[in-house]
Design brief:
Strand content: 15-25%
Distance between the termini: 14 Å
Mean pLDDT: 96
Strand order of the largest sheet: 3-4-2-1-7-8-9-10
CATH topology of the largest domain: Rossmann fold
Largest sheet: 8 strands, mixed
Number of strands: 16
CATH architecture of the largest domain: 3-Layer(aba) Sandwich
Shape: globular
Structural class: alpha/beta
CATH superfamily of the largest domain: Glycogen Phosphorylase B
Helix content: 40-55%
Length: 371
């Protein structure tokens, strides 16, 4: 069974949540007789074909970027050629050019759409795009949501409930590197061994400005690892608030991330907007047995983190509630440790890459049986 995945960006050039999901899908479905290929855009597609993990990635020239949407003149021809060799095309939404690409290329193969997120920010452009989006989603053989929470709260997905299946994202614990004693000692000396941790790209919807407000009246150590468009503003805010208990670790590699996840007391994930549709970082912390703090935004974050069991869930954009959740875990280490154990068990039950791969392979087979 041959599957062609289509998304605007991919490894090794970009590392994000959707890229990670596509990678885990390609790796995990191969054990179930699936041969995967990825088509993506690149500002410099040389070489045009690269190997990532166990699959090939085909890259075409990114010619134009408009409202976070990449366009390519060569993409329709390449899609048509690669789709002819595939049994199913698996599109990863949202990427408005992808819908147009499918139409222009005249794809007549069955297709699946992984609905990763509603379109949150470009509301005016959404009005123009909606007819094309409705046609694209309406003709999909299956639409995949990553959590029942997101299915229930997405007004778009409600129109297609009869063809939506929930398959949670999964990660392979074996792929997390052992940081080694030297790396653990390095971070322990820099950050201590009792701190709150955030890991991720510093984007507008991550709610990190609220997190800084939450710790302004405390002495709880906080480590923020990662980089992104909001970094400069957040550093300014930290200086303005006079924060002495915060450490900006900057961009880190996988070994550093594993070290910090092993060392931290709890993982805090203050995303306050629905653009945060799932929360891969929460899964990474759960794998390491850490209690979680997140916000209720009607997305997959509250499917990973069950309030009172795997951690605490607070209202979005509420610094006082976030501070109180941190206080609860900080002052009750035994309860925090129990929540961490529950988080790890929930990962093993629902969020492994093996489970995701098995469910997705069955979806592919079912779609082909009914074609």
């Amino acid at each position: 069974m041959r599957i062609l995945h289509v998304f605007k960006t991919y490894l090794p050039e970009t590392v994000g949540g959707i890229e990670q999901v596509i990678y885990q899908l390609c790796q995990s479905t191969s054990a179930h007789g699936v041969e995967n290929t990825v088509l993506t855009l690149s500002p410099d597609p040389r070489p045009a074909t690269v190997t990532v993990g166990n699959h090939q990635v085909h890259r075409v020239k990114l010619d134009l970027q408009l409202a976070s949407t990449g366009f390519s003149f060569k993409a329709p021809g390449r899609l048509k050629c690669l789709a002819a060799q595939a049994d199913i095309v698996h599109y990863h939404f949202p990427w408005p050019f992808m819908d147009l690409l499918h139409l222009i290329a005249g794809i007549d193969k069955p297709y699946v759409v992984s609905y990763h997120s509603d379109i949150v920010r470009q509301k005016h452009l959404l009005r123009l795009y909606r007819p094309l989006m409705s046609r694209f989603l309406g003709q999909a053989g299956r639409i995949v949501a990553a959590s029942p929470n997101y299915l229930e709260t997405s007004t778009v997905l409600q129109h297609y409930r009869d063809r939506v299946e929930v398959i949670p994202y999964g990660l392979d614990q074996a792929e997390f590197p052992d940081p080694g004693q030297q790396r653990l000692q390095h971070w322990s000396e820099r950050c201590g061994s009792n701190f709150f941790l955030f890991v991720g790209v510093m984007r507008y919807y991550k709610g990190l400005h609220v997190l800084l407000e939450a710790i302004a009246e405390t002495d709880y150590p906080l480590v923020i690892a990662g980089a992104g468009p909001m970094e400069r503003a957040l550093r300014r805010q930290a200086r303005h608030l006079g924060l002495k208990n915060i450490h900006f670790a900057g961009r880190i590699d996988e070994e550093d991330k594993s070290a910090l996840l092993q060392l931290c007391t709890a993982f805090v994930f203050p995303s306050h907007l629905r653009a945060e549709s799932f929360g891969i970082s929460l899964l990474e912390a759960a794998i390491h047995g850490k209690p979680l703090i997140s916000c209720e935004i009607g997305s997959g974050t509250s499917y990973i983190n069950l309030h009172g069991q795997t951690g605490l869930v607070v209202p979005p954009s509420d610094a006082a509630a976030l501070r109180e959740a941190m206080r609860t875990l900080w002052e009750n280490p035994e309860r925090a440790a129990e929540m961490g154990r529950n988080a790890a068990e929930r990962y093993r039950t629902l969020f492994t890459a093996e489970r995701m791969g098995r469910q997705m392979a069955e979806l592919y087979r079912d779609l082909l049986r009914h074609e």
